[in-house]
Amino acid sequence: MNVSALSEFDLFLYHQGTNYHAYEMLGAHFMEKDGKNGVRFAVWAPHAKSVSVVGDFNAWDTRTHTMERIGDGEIWVTFIEGLEEGEVYKYAIEPQWGGPHIMKADPYGFYAEKKPKTASRLYDLSKYQWNDAAWQERKKTHPSYSNPMLTYEVHLGSWRRTLEGGYLSYRELADQLIGYAKKMNYTHIEVMPLCEHPFDGSWGYQATGYYAVTSRYGEPDDFRYFVDTAHANGIAVIMDWVPGHFCKDEQGLRHFDGMTLYESDNEQRAENWEWGTTNFDYGRTEVQSFLISNAMFWFEEYHIDGLRIDAVANMLYLNYGRKDGEWQPNKYGDTGNLEAMDFIKKLNEAIFKFHPDALMIAEESTAWPLISKPVYMGGMGFNYKWNMGWMNDMLSYMSLDPIYRKWNQDKVTFSFMYAFSENFVLPLSHDEVVHGKCSLVSKMPGDYWQKFAGLRGFFGYWMAHPGKKLLFMGGEFAQFIEWNYDDSLDWHLVEEYPMHTKMLEYSRALNKFYKENRPFWEVDFDWNGFEWIDCNDSENSIITFVRKADNAADFLVVLCNFTPEVRHDYRIGVPKKGEYREVFNSDAEEFGGSGVKNEGALHTEDVPWHDREQSLVITVPPMATIYLRHKDTLPFVKRSTPEEETDVLVVKGVETKKEKEPKKPAAKVSDSAQKEATKAEQSPREAAEGKKAHEGKAAPSKAEAVKKSSAAPQKKPKGGEAKKSVKARPRKAETAKGATKTAKPPKKSSKKKAAAQ
C-alpha cells in the first residue's frame, strides 16, 4: 500500500468522487514524520466543530490529540508519535452546535475490537508477503466466462465450529475449509460478508467497518492467509459486499459528524424500513470515493477475485420495499434511482479498469435489463447476475408432488426463454434455506429415499443447465434442518447416516464431472452451447437437451426425469449417429440410488425422432438425471490426475509448500454402523423396481420386473408415455419384530432462528 501524502490533487479527486484509493489517504497509517515514527490519522467530517483522536494511549481524553482542518476544511488530520499496532482508538467529534462529543469508529479503519466492543484498532497492512503471483498470472489467461465456475457459498462462523462451540479462525478455516473445497472439486468459494459488523444475526449484511475484516475469526493478515491458501490450491475467493445500506449503530456511519453525511438529507431516501438500516447517498461524491475505494481495497489488499454485490434492486429502485407515500419518484416520474444507476456504472468501470479479470456479480432480483452487460453497451457493467427467476421456479417445481409436475412443466422450461439475456449464475444460496423455507432436501416431496433421489436428480439438472453454479454449504450432503448462523452444520449426518455419506460422494463426483467436461461450462451464455431435444414431454415430466462445448463436436446429451417412474424403451432423438455411452447417472447405487442404468454401448437406430434422423432407445431411471456421450467425443474429456485430486497446498509464512491434504470434516461411517445400515435398509435397486423384501419370499429378478413393466409404446413425436412405468419405493428400515417402517431423517434442533436481514 502506498500511503498518500494528502496532496491537493488527492483531495480534489476525493471530492470529485474519483479517488479510487481513498484508503491510502484517509484512516490511520503508520509512517515516519520529521524522523519520528507514529501514526497519521485523517477523517472526513465537514460538519464537525472539532475532532480529536482518543484511545487508551491518552486515557480517552478529547483534549490531548486534537486534529486540524486541511484543504477546504472538510478533512481533519493529526500525527501521533510512538503508537504501536493493536492500539484501540476512536474519533471524538464535537457537533457544530456543541454538546457532548460523538464517539465514532474509523470509517477507513483496517481492524476493530471484538464485539461487543466497538473501537477501531491500529493495524499495519504492509507486513504480509503474498505467495499467489502464479495465480494472478493464470487469471489473465483463463477468463471466467469460458471456464468452470462452481462456487461453494460459506458463512465462516457456522460452516464448522470448535468442540467447545467457538469460531474457527481464518487460519484454521484455511487449513480445513480450503482442503474440503478442493476435495469436493469446487472452483470458487464465496464468503458471506466479512466487513466488521456488530450483530451476528445480520450475517454480516449490516456493517459498521467497511475496511475492517471482522475480528471474529482473527486479524487481517490471517484472512490474507486464507485467500493465499485458496489461491495456492487453485480456488478463487468471492466476497459478499453490501454497498446499499449500513447499520444504525452509534459507532458507525450514520450521522457521522452529527449530521447526515454518508446518507441522504432526504429521510425517505435515507431510511431503509425493510431492514432497519440506512441507505447510502450515491449522489454525494465523497460517498462514491468511499465505496469504490472500498471495492478496490478488497481486490488490492486482500487479493480477492470477485465481489457479489448484495441487494442491487434495493439500490436501483426508489420504491423497493416501500409502500405508497414512503417514496418519491425521480425527476422523470418513475421508480429508478438515477444516482444509484450512475454510481453502479462508475463502480464497475473503475474496477474493470484496474482489474479486468475481476468478478462483479449482481444479486438483482427483478427483470432490470442489461445488468451484466458493459456500460458502453447500455448495461449496468456487472459481468454476472444471479438468476433468481430460475431459482424460484425450480424450487417451486421441485417442491411439488411428482403427480402434479406434468401440469407445471413450464416452470422447468421457462428459464430458457431468457437464459442468455444475461451472464447468469444459478444460485442455490443461503436465502433459500432459512426462515421456514426448509433445507433443499426437505423441500423435496416423498419419503426419505425419494427426497434424496429428488435432490440428486435436481442437482444433475442444475449442473447441466446453462450458467455458472453456486451452492450454499450443507446442500452438498443434504442437511435436513434449516441453516442456523449460530451453530455448526450437522456434520454428524455424514458420519452416522449412509444416505448423507452417499449424497456427499454424489456431490463430489458430480462436481468432478462438471469440471472435466467442457460442454457444461465453455459456452454458457449463448445458444451455441445449448439445444433442445424435447421440452414437451410434460406427461412424463421428462426433458432432454444437448450441451455443447466451443468445439460443437464435443457434446453431452442430458435427460432429466422428474418422477419416481422407471421408463423402459424410451426413445430420444440424438445429434449424431453411432455409439453412445451413459457416462453419469444420479440414480447409481453408490450414490444411494436404485441402480437403474444403461449398461454398455447404446447404438442409434435410423428412426427419425424429435426432428432428428437418428434416435436411441434407453431406460430412464427414477427421479434421476443421466448424461450420455457419443464415443467419438470421449477424447475431449479431461482426466484428473491423482495429484490434482489429492494434493492441497497450504501457505506457511512466506513460503508455499506441498502438504498432505487436511482431513475432511466428515468422518467415515464405522464398520458396525455400516453393517447395521445394511441389515436395516432395503436394496435401492429393489426399491426402484417396485419390489418388497418380505420375509420368506424371494424377490423377483430384474429381468422379471422389466418383463412385467412392458406396456403400450411411447408416443411420437413428443416422446409421450413410455412402456409401463414402475414407481420407486422408499427404502425400509426393519424393526426388531420384523415389521417395516419408513426410515426417518435424524433431528437436530437449532438454537435460535436467524434474524432477518
TrEMBL record:
One GO process term, biological-process aspect: glycogen biosynthetic process
Domain Glycosyl hydrolase family 13 catalytic, residue spans: 153-508
Ranges of biased composition (kind: Basic and acidic residues): 655-664, 673-697
Enzyme class: transferase
Record InterPro entries: A-amylase/branching_C, Branching_enzy, GH, GH13_cat_dom, GlgB, GlgB_N_E_set_prok, Glyco_hydro_13_N, Glyco_hydro_b
A GO MF label: hydrolase activity, hydrolyzing O-glycosyl compounds
Biological or metabolic pathway of the protein: Glycan biosynthesis; glycogen biosynthesis
SUPFAM superfamilies per UniProt: (Trans)glycosidases, E set domains, Glycosyl hydrolase domain
CDD domains to which the protein is assigned, alphabetical: AmyAc_Glg_BE, E_set_GBE_prok_N
Keyword Transferase: yes
Compositional bias of kind Low complexity: 698-714
UniProt keyword list: Carbohydrate metabolism, Glycogen biosynthesis, Glycogen metabolism, Glycosyltransferase, Transferase
Disordered: region residues: 655-757
Catalytic reaction(s) noted: Transfers a segment of a (1->4)-alpha-D-glucan chain to a primary hydroxy group in a similar glucan chain
Keyword Repeat: no
Residue spans crossing the bilayer: none
EC number: 2.4.1.18
SMART domains: Aamy (SM00642)
Biased composition (Basic residues): 744-757
One GO cellular component, as annotated: cytosol
Active site (record annotation): 310, 363
Family: Belongs to the glycosyl hydrolase 13 family. GlgB subfamily.
Subunit structure: Monomer.
Function: Catalyzes the formation of the alpha-1,6-glucosidic linkages in glycogen by scission of a 1,4-alpha-linked oligosaccharide from growing alpha-1,4-glucan chains and the subsequent attachment of the oligosaccharide to the alpha-1,6 position.
Protein name as catalogued: 1,4-alpha-glucan branching enzyme GlgB
Native species: Selenomonas sputigena (strain ATCC 35185 / DSM 20758 / CCUG 44933 / VPI D19B-28)
